[in-house]
Amino acid sequence: MSESLLQPRLALEREDPAEGLSMAIPLDPDPPEPLVEASPPVPDAIEPGRALALGDFAPPETSPGERLIRFAYRLGVPGPTLVAPFRKRAAPRLLATVENPLSGDRVGGMALRAGHFLIHGIKVPIGQMDFSSVARLTPPFERTIHGFSWLADLDACAPRQQCTATAERILTSWLDANPHPAKGTAWKVGHTGHRVLGWLVHAPLLLSGSDKRLRRRTLAALADTARWLDRNVGKAEDRLAELAGWCAIVAAGLLLPDGKPRRLFGEAGLVRALGEVVGTDGGVLSRSPLDQMEAIALLVQLGACYRATRRDPPQAIETMERMLVPPLLTLLHADGGLGNWQGAGAAPAERIAALVKASGVRSRPLRDARQWGYQRIAAGRSVLQFDAAPPPLARHTRFGCASTLAFELSHGTQRLIVNCGGAAFAGGMVPVRIEQGLRGTAAHSTLVLGEANSTSVLINGKLGSGVGEVEVDRRLVESGQATATRLEASHDGYAQRFGLIHRRILILRDDGTELRGEDLLVPAGRRAKRGKIPYAIRFHLGPGIEATLTDSKRGVHLALPDGSYWQFLSISGEVMVDESLWVDGDGRPHAVAQLVIEGMESRGGGSFSWLLKRLG
Prior knowledge:
With 616 residues, this protein is α+β, with helices and mostly antiparallel strands.
């Protein structure tokens, strides 16, 4: 493991729990020889959230005069007074035109031109939308309406002159409902930061119409909102929202007159915020790929503002942008789409590729993103993703999920084993009432003990007690000409309640056609508790997979949409096929199946072996 700012504690040596994994599973007439383990490293223990060490970035280097200007601006001295104290204050205007680096959703833009919002599959007429700050909207609608994310969609659907009337209509309605900065959802720091950045990046769409009065009103609102952000960015609802606020402050300092003091103030705050949002390996502390995408998009848009004014961003900002991309690539499947982790949906490959291209960063996925908490194995045409870390701390998460030791597996363009995902989209086609369920352990492909979450799932996207430490061990194993990657991890989420440690071992062959697994329950103390406890090991299947039980009910034939066949075998008990759902990147739920191995197990511990193999 590479060095980092925070070295994880080393776990004590222990007996190898993989002895039962070398058993021959009757699938082929000539089963492969047991895999021989290569020299085992000492496993690492990852503590909750604290192992996600914060990046340490110093404020950009400035001259003594610039530091004095920044200090005075932070104390409340207006920018025009610091720049030109004896000159008449300039009227609000934009100093440059930003070239939009990120394209929006063309379908959503066409829906806007047709007269309605299309948000995660839900249509709402523009005329019926309540734009006021006190309106009760679901989170997806809040982000779209008050964060003005719809501007990118409208900009992507048609030439600008055909979209200006629609943009002016929505902007006028919003300004009428929110004439001044106030309290409420419209004035959350995150929404306000996205709104200001959107107004600046998409200014030609908003300001190129013939209504000069609306133009003056918009520029005045932009200046007022930027000043409001200066005073309130420190009151953000979470770290990522604060990051959006700082990006907007810097962009306003670049593009509005007399903005140098604001830019200096914003750059120092932005660099500090980046160090509090992102860990040492580039993963955001919420461990959410959606948040990772948002952080990248914010820096990409800010970079476009720098280019428009022919200025270079501070080195720390460019460095952070390069760090953010590789962890995101870690959670891409073989089809280039995103895995369903920490509330995310399966964002399509085109959306991820466009974001990475706009960032200008060329990189490979992190194979072992140990600080961020995800393991990735690419073998042949298969990709395995494994959550091998505690859930994020409550102060970082927005849609925290109890997904420790869950995995996803894809082969080519087909997803075999998935997690439900989609909690971040609740309020669209995903009902709000199932949001907490989608964040629970049972919505992920892992073991559930006593029908309880491995970490408590609370309201408002927060998490409670549960997993406190995860041990991780990754190594190569060999058998003659064949090689494989072996992942072993354990968590203590059930130790306090049930006195058991969940340990999971996954072995993926180098050709990607066979995955062996074993789930173990190990007593947490010296003395095992008496009695039995219910368990369930869930494997949520990808969309379009047809599952057929064998006569013995210990095997399942899986027919994939691409015409290939796989087989799942359970050595430790019967398998049942149940209903489940899977949420795609547009927030649309799809009915899928899940395989479940369930029963009662002694509190003294037990093991459950299974195998997934391609037949043709």
